[in-house]
Input
Amino acid sequence: MKRIYWLASFPKSGNTWFRIFLKNYLSDDDKPFDINHSLKNDFLASLRELIDKVTGLESSLMTHEEIERLQPAVYAQWSLEATEDRYVKIHDACNEVLPDLPIVSVKGTKGAIYIMRNPLDVVLSFADHMGYGIDKAIEVMKDENSFLCGKKGKPENQVKQRLNGWSGHVASWADARWFPVEIIKYEEMKEDPLTAFGRAIRFLELPYDEARLKKAVFFSEFNELKKQEQEKDFIERSWASGAFFRKGEVGQWKVALTPEQIRRIVNDHAAVMKRFGYLDGIDPELLKEIDR
Output
């Protein structure tokens, strides 16, 4: 049976970049994959169309809780129908919808790659993408009840996705006990892409080819993605954002956030940031003031 590899992340942590790399690696073409073509047919866990198709029911008539309880069965059934392993983007936290039953299902899952990024940088991209001010984004990333989509009114093309806040999201995937999880940091992808993406290729049990890897990394460089977006826009760019591929930098927070904003984010997420090395490089004097 073919199964699902989840490509999971809190929003604006590098998931799209990773998926474009994967498309370039899988296609093994002599030119970069078109960013719009590569993603318009991608699998997205939260698509209402997928849930409706597999269940034969109208999810728009269901409550969010009813949909969540159905999702594990949807993904299990979907994996049974697969002719090859699927690589599926997901922003949901890996919550249990029933005792010992995660939202992604156990039967249908082969493993997960969790793409993690420093919350001090995430907040800048997240704020821009959602049309928030930075202070609002900080509050959303702290909120254990935060979610994407699922607002009252006309149903969106995606169902509600519970985020659990940044710390809760990271912990839900990093500590998932039902299947193997490979954590890849955005910072690793920037600093040493061949090693980071190469580790992902091995985890996904794809044929490893160094020349192919180098080409896929080159075709997925930020400047190439930004160039394509400037030439023909990008289907995943939100209405609130001027560009999906903004700067792609590591450590932008050092000049873009105020000391008070840094203090708030670190105070909200200190335990998880410490666990994954994201307190390194922060002013020791500031850290003395953090409630931990």
The chain has a mean pLDDT of 86. The radius of gyration is 19 Å. The first helix runs from residue 15 to 27. The domain at 4-245 is CATH 3.40.50.300 (Rossmann fold).
